[in-house]
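Render this sequence as a predicted structure.
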Amino acid sequence: MSKEKIKLIAFDFEEVIFEGTTTLIAAKLAKHDKKAKEIIKKMVFDCFMKTPTDKLPIMTKAYNEGIKLIEGVEYEKIFEEMKKAGLVKDVKNVLQELKERGVTMIVLTIGEEFLARKLLQHFELDKYFEYVKGVKTIKNNNKIGDGFADNDLIAKGKGAFLKKYCKSNKIALKNVACVGDGLTDTHMFMYAAKNILITPYSFPD
C-alpha cells in the first residue's frame, strides 16, 4: 500500500509554535491567574470521556468564563510577555524544512488571532503560513473583551475550519496532518490522516 503524501499541516499555536498561552498570561496580568487555572481544570474534568464534538459546548463555556476574567487587559502587555516566552525549540527549522518540501501550513488557535498574527510577524514566521484563524476578542486593536468575543473556532470546533479550508483549496483530508497539544485540538484530529500530539494535556501549576 502506497503512503499518501502530506500536502497540508494544521498547527495549533500556543505550546506548539510558541511557549506559553495568551489566556493564562492575560489572566496573570489581570491578577486572576488562580481563577483561570481553576476554570481550565474544571473544563478538563468535565471533558473526560466525552467525544471531541461533545467537548465543544464545555470548552465554549469555559472560554467565555475566561474572557470575563481578562477583559480590559491591553494586548501590548500580553504581546510583550509572549515575546519573552518565545518560540518552541527548533520550530523555525522544522517550518523551513516543511516549506522546502512544498507542504502548505496553516494555524488554527483558540488564542487571540490578532496576537497570533503579530507574534508570527515579529518572529518572521508569517511567511510559512497560508492561513491563520483564531478567536477574536480585541476591539480597536487595543484591549481584550469589552463584551466582545468571536469564538466560532471553539463553538464549531477546529475540525470544521480545517474541512472548510481543505474544501476551498481542493486538498483531500487523506493528505492532511495536524499538530496540537490539548483538548481543543482533538476535534481537528478526527478529520486528518495523521496527527501529532506534542505533549499530553497537563494542568497548569
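Summary. The two ends are 45 Å apart (CA to CA). The first helix runs from residue 22 to 29.
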